[in-house]
Amino acid sequence: MCGGVGTARTPVWTWLRDRLAAFDPGLLRLAAGMRTSGSIALTLAVLSTLDLPVRHLVAGALAAMVAAFAIREKQRRRQAVTLALGLPVALVSLSLGALLHSRVVAGDLFFLALIFCAVYSRRFGDRGNALGLIGFQTYFMSLFIGATVPALPGLCGVVVIAFLCSALVRFVIVYETPAGILQRLREAFRVRLAQLVEAQLELLDAGPDEVGKALEAVREGTARLHETAMMIQSRLQEGTSDEAVAQLVQRRIA
């Protein structure tokens, strides 16, 4: 069981670790937040040493943000390929935004077409979704900062730096392995299972006025446990060494 805070059975550190594991299974949201914020911070740190105008700093921060959160693939190799493909997509989108800066009607029509392409690209899976999002966000960024043709070389350099910083944070600083993610998901499953058993015991001991609240806690705990099981199922192929191990983990979760 999870136990109470500060009890002899459950130290405070263990209690906090279990709560974090249950709140964020696999620490996926924490890692995503660290990748995004780390990419932005590193990009701004690099750009601040180059004495660039504020417009370039804003462009770098936005490019680093989209390069970090647009990629949702699980395999690191596929993430690297998508990030590499996203750089030319971003540069082309930024260039078109600068070229169409003074052509309002043409720019608006292209923006509508780009929105359609970004949405339609979702049918091609995570990579298509990521590239469509990068193209759309970069074009929107060019409109937001008022990108022009004379400023285009400097802005392209900023985007390249932002993507390199995002790659450094993703693949070196915030380093995640499929096996490590799966192990943390299994730990979250254990904690959520203990919480569900705890809620069931409270339901058995609940008085007439407390049954509704206790029953709702059991339902919520069951849904959270099922959610974690599905997350483990989606990570089995990448996080285990072979099919036999994956089947063993699947049976244990079931």
Supply the key terms.
mainly alpha; 254 residues
In words, what does this structure look like?
- By secondary structure, the protein is an all-alpha fold.
- It has helices at residues 12-23, 28-48, 54-69, 76-99, 104-120, 125-145, 152-173, 178-205, 211-239, 243-253.
- It contains ten helices and no strands.
- It is elongated.
Question: What is the count of DSSP helices, taking H or I runs of 4+ residues?
Answer: 10
- Unreliable residue runs: 3-8
For the CA atoms, what is the radius of gyration?
23 Å
> Structural class per helix/strand content?
mainly alpha
Taken from the alpha-carbon principal axes, the silhouette is: elongated
Distance between the first and last residues' Cα:
20 Å
Order of helices and strands: HHHHHHHHHH
Give the topology, please:
Elements: H1 12-23, H2 28-48, H3 54-69, H4 76-99, H5 104-120, H6 125-145, H7 152-173, H8 178-205, H9 211-239, H10 243-253
Gist?
The protein has 254 residues and is mainly alpha-helical. It is built from 10 helices and no strands.
